[in-house]
Amino acid sequence: MKTLWSVFLCLAVFLLCPSVSQSSGRVSSCCLTTSETVLRLNLINSYYLQRKGGICPVDAVVFVTVKGIKVCANPDKMTWT
Protein backbone atom coordinates (compact mmCIF):
# COMPACT_ATOMS: atom_id res chain seq x y z
CA MET A 1 0.00 0.00 0.00
CA LYS A 2 2.91 2.33 0.78
CA THR A 3 4.32 1.79 -2.73
CA LEU A 4 0.97 2.56 -4.32
CA TRP A 5 0.72 5.79 -2.33
CA SER A 6 4.25 6.80 -3.43
CA VAL A 7 3.43 6.12 -7.07
CA PHE A 8 0.23 8.14 -6.81
CA LEU A 9 2.06 11.05 -5.15
CA CYS A 10 4.80 11.08 -7.81
CA LEU A 11 2.22 10.98 -10.59
CA ALA A 12 0.26 13.85 -9.03
CA VAL A 13 3.41 15.99 -8.74
CA PHE A 14 4.38 15.17 -12.31
CA LEU A 15 0.96 16.16 -13.64
CA LEU A 16 0.60 19.34 -11.59
CA CYS A 17 4.05 20.85 -12.15
CA PRO A 18 3.58 21.83 -15.84
CA SER A 19 0.20 23.41 -15.14
CA VAL A 20 1.62 25.46 -12.26
CA SER A 21 4.42 26.86 -14.41
CA GLN A 22 2.07 27.61 -17.30
CA SER A 23 -0.48 29.39 -15.13
CA SER A 24 2.01 31.79 -13.55
CA GLY A 25 1.09 34.59 -15.95
CA ARG A 26 2.49 35.94 -19.17
CA VAL A 27 5.95 34.57 -19.73
CA SER A 28 7.35 35.63 -23.01
CA SER A 29 10.77 35.86 -24.51
CA CYS A 30 12.90 38.45 -22.87
CA CYS A 31 15.68 40.55 -24.40
CA LEU A 32 18.94 39.63 -22.72
CA THR A 33 20.94 42.14 -24.75
CA THR A 34 20.21 44.91 -27.23
CA SER A 35 21.22 45.28 -30.85
CA GLU A 36 22.21 48.21 -33.04
CA THR A 37 20.51 46.69 -36.08
CA VAL A 38 18.84 49.29 -38.29
CA LEU A 39 15.37 48.28 -39.47
CA ARG A 40 13.47 49.74 -42.38
CA LEU A 41 10.15 51.23 -41.33
CA ASN A 42 8.13 49.09 -43.76
CA LEU A 43 9.45 45.92 -42.09
CA ILE A 44 8.20 46.85 -38.60
CA ASN A 45 4.82 45.42 -37.65
CA SER A 46 4.68 46.52 -34.02
CA TYR A 47 6.77 47.35 -30.97
CA TYR A 48 6.56 47.25 -27.20
CA LEU A 49 8.64 48.34 -24.22
CA GLN A 50 10.45 45.90 -21.98
CA ARG A 51 11.34 47.11 -18.50
CA LYS A 52 14.36 45.89 -16.59
CA GLY A 53 13.39 43.65 -13.71
CA GLY A 54 12.42 40.11 -12.88
CA ILE A 55 13.91 37.84 -15.52
CA CYS A 56 14.63 40.69 -17.97
CA PRO A 57 18.10 42.19 -17.37
CA VAL A 58 17.82 45.23 -19.70
CA ASP A 59 15.43 48.00 -20.69
CA ALA A 60 14.59 47.63 -24.38
CA VAL A 61 12.29 48.68 -27.17
CA VAL A 62 11.31 45.43 -28.87
CA PHE A 63 10.44 45.80 -32.54
CA VAL A 64 8.47 42.95 -34.11
CA THR A 65 8.95 42.61 -37.86
CA VAL A 66 6.32 41.53 -40.35
CA LYS A 67 7.90 38.05 -40.26
CA GLY A 68 7.60 37.91 -36.47
CA ILE A 69 11.29 38.44 -35.72
CA LYS A 70 11.96 40.41 -32.54
CA VAL A 71 14.77 42.97 -32.53
CA CYS A 72 15.72 44.49 -29.18
CA ALA A 73 17.02 48.07 -29.17
CA ASN A 74 18.47 50.13 -26.33
CA PRO A 75 16.04 53.03 -25.74
CA ASP A 76 18.86 55.29 -24.52
CA LYS A 77 20.96 54.87 -27.68
CA MET A 78 18.23 55.09 -30.32
CA THR A 79 18.55 57.76 -32.99
CA TRP A 80 15.65 58.55 -35.29
CA THR A 81 16.62 59.53 -38.81
UniProtKB/TrEMBL annotation:
It is found in: Secreted. Keywords: Chemotaxis, Cytokine, Disulfide bond, Secreted, Signal. GO terms for molecular function: chemokine activity. Residues 27-78 form the Chemokine interleukin-8-like domain. One of its GO terms (biological process) is immune response. InterPro entries: Chemokine_b/g/d, Chemokine_CC_CS, Chemokine_IL8-like_dom, Interleukin_8-like_sf. Residues 1-23 form the signal peptide. GO terms for cellular component: extracellular space. Its main location: secreted. It comes from the Eukaryota. SMART domains: SCY. Belongs to the intercrine beta (chemokine CC) family. This is C-C motif chemokine. The lineage of its organism: Eukaryota, Metazoa, Chordata, Craniata, Vertebrata.
